[in-house]
Each structure stands twice: as structure tokens, then as C-alpha cells.
């Protein structure tokens, strides 16, 4: 497929505190023509599934944590080239979603810098175990995520978009990260989520949300947001795929991204 390469017209600047570490961080997203990469000091890591080093509660690329929300924003805005410079090794939590990343990128302006050919996906990909499943096929941007919690509320939530790029900014980007109320002691014990508060993280109580939700199905939408960001590590435009996932998290998402990247590599 022929893909239009897109980057920023000018640098975008954000600052905040790391979503899990709570460490102050400044982020500058520079225009580029060298793909998507993250830079901390003298270390530079290319956004690709083979460079993921951890998927415990976030996606870590090399030594840089929680890259999935910004990667999701890149995918939704169809940005193919950007150099992300950080002063600390974790992206900021901001409002818990991709919304502020999208706004900063849009404000900086986007420009097209030519084209490139990305090999088409000619076979359906499927990954599953007892806990999750992900199906990926060549398509036209129809994405769905099923958030399933069994007997625990909310039980079942599904969210889908038939035109993922066109609907991303309004329907996916604002969905915030979340936690179950019973997880909070463990999150505090292990020093996670320090960059979030009651406004930037949705808390799922035993029978309802414990703070105001932006959408009735916000958890399903946020899980779709994460899925988009993780799969974009494969470098395939999200409008060129149809994806259905149930219960997947970062570990499964990155495995699927690696499968996708391998499937589109030219054979000798």
C-alpha cells in the first residue's frame, strides 16, 4: 500500500509527571523524516515491537516507559515520523488519556513529507490464549475492543468504530486509564500510578464508577486506545487494518504487533 508520510510542522512541547513514577518530565516532539523514535539523553530507540523491553502495566520502549498513549495519538493523526525527546524516562500521565497529546500535536501543525510503500497484509493474523484474543486483517479501519470482566462489574463492554481515523479524536483519544477499586492497595504498595489522580484515572467500583466517567463505556474505549498505540509499533496505518480484540493488554498487544510486523516483511 502507498502511505503518505506525515510529521509535525513545528516542535510540540508538553510537561507533566510520569504516569507511574510521578517523576517530572518535559517532552519535546520534533519534526523528523526518520520514522518514530524516542530519545533520552544520548540514548535513542526506534518505535518497533522488537525494541519493547517490558509490558507490565504499560509499554516500555528501551528505557522509556508508558509510550502507548503518545503512540496511539500518532496513529490516530497518521503521523509516521517524529523524534520524541524526554528529560526523564517516562511519558507524562497528563489527563490519563491521549487527548492532550492529540491537542499538542495538532497545535504544532502537521505536514506531509512524501510517500512510502508499506507491504500489504495478505493473511489474517490471530493470537489467543485462555485470557485474550486479537484478530487482525487487511481492511478499512474497522476496530473493536471487548472489555470483559466476568462476574465482576461491569461484566461486558464493547466499543467499535468503522472508521477509526475519522472517529479517533472524538471517540477514542479522551478515554482515560482506569483501575479497579480493589487494585488500589497493590498499586500504592508498588508505587505505581503516581502521575494520576481522581480526575485523570477512572476508578471502577463494585457496581459503578467511583468518579465521573467521560463515556459510559470508557474502559473499553481506553483499552482500544492502548491497543492502537501498541499495534502502531508495527508501522502499519490503522486505517488499513480491521482489528477485533477481547481482553487483551499490553503483553498480547505487543506480541500481535510483532506478528504484524513480521507478516508484512518482504520475503527473500
How would you characterize the overall build of this protein?
The protein is an alpha+beta fold and 268 residues long. It has a domain at 2-120: 2-Layer Sandwich (Ribosomal Protein S5, domain 2), CATH 3.30.230.20. It has 6 helices and 16 strands. The strands form 5 sheets. A 5-stranded mixed beta sheet has the order 2-3-8-4-5. A 5-stranded mixed beta sheet has the order 10-11-16-12-13, with helices on one face. The relative contact order is 0.21. The mean pLDDT is 95.
Keywords:
268 residues, Ribosomal Protein S5, domain 2, globular, 6 helices, alpha+beta, 5-stranded mixed beta sheet, 16 strands
Provide a short characterization of the protein structure.
Helix content is 23%, strand content 30%.
> Low-confidence parts, pLDDT < 50 over ≥5 residues?
none
Tell me, briefly, the overall form. Answer: globular
Q: Count of helical segments?
A: 6
Q: Tell me the name of the CATH homologous superfamily of one domain.
A: lpxc deacetylase, domain 1
- Strand residues, percent: 25-35%
Calculate Rg over CA atoms: 17 Å
Major sheet strand order: 2-3-8-4-5
- CATH level-1 class of one domain: Alpha Beta
Structural class: alpha+beta
**What is the mean predicted local confidence, pLDDT?**
95
User: Under the CATH scheme, which architecture of one domain would be assigned?
Assistant: 2-Layer Sandwich
Give the helix proportion (percent range).
10-25%
Distance between the termini: 19 Å
The biggest sheet, with number of strands, parallel, antiparallel or mixed sense and barrel status, is: 5 strands, mixed
**Can you write the helix and strand succession as a string?**
EEEEEEEHEHEEEEEHEHEHEH
**CATH fold name of one domain, please?**
Ribosomal Protein S5, domain 2
Q: How many strand units? A: 16
Amino acid at each position: 500500500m502507498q502511505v503518505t508520510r506525515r510529521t509535525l510542522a513545528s516542535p510540540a512541547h508538553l510537561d507533566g509527571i510520569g504516569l507511574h513514577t510521578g517523576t517530572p518530565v518535559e517532552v519535546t516532539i520534533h519534526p523528523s523524516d526518520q520514522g518514530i523514535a524516542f530519545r533520552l539523553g544520548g540514548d535513542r530507540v526506534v518505535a518497533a515491537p522488537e525494541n519493547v523491553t517490558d509490558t507490565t502495566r504499560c509499554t516500555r520502549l528501551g528505557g522509556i516507559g508508558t509510550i502507548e498513549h503518545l503512540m496511539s495519538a500518532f496513529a490516530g493523526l497518521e503521523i509516521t515520523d517524529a523524534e520524541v525527546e524526554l528529560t526523564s524516562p517516562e511519558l507524562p500521565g497528563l489527563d490519563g488519556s491521549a487527548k492532550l497529546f492529540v491537542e499538542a500535536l495538532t497545535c504544532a501543525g502537521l505536514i506531509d513529507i512524501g510517500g512510502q510503500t508499506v507491504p500489504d497484509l495478505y493473511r489474517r493474523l490471530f493470537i489467543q490464549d485462555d485470557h485474550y484474543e486479537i484478530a487482525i486483517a487487511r481492511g478499512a479501519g474497522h476496530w473493536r475492543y471487548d472489555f470483559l470482566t466476568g462476574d465482576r462489574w461491569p461484566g461486558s463492554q464493547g466499543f467499535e468504530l468503522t472508521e477509526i481515523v475519522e472517529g479517533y479524536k472524538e471517540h477514542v483519544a479522551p478515554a482515560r486509564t482506569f483501575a479497579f477499586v480493589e487494585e488500589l492497595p497493590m498499586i500504592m504498595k508498588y508505587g505505581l500510578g503516581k502521575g494520576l489522580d481522581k480526575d485523570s484515572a477512572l476508578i471502577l467500583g463494585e457496581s459503578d464508577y467511583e468518579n465521573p466517567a467521560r463515556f459510559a463505556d470508557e474502559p473499553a474505549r481506553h483499552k482500544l486506545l492502548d491497543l492502537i498505540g501498541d499495534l502502531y509499533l508495527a508501522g502499519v496505518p490503522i486505517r488499513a487494518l480491521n482489528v477485533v480484540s477481547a481482553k487483551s493488554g499490553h503483553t498480547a498487544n505487543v506480541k500481535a504487533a510483532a506478528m504484524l510486523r513480521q507478516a508484512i516483511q518482504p520475503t527473500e
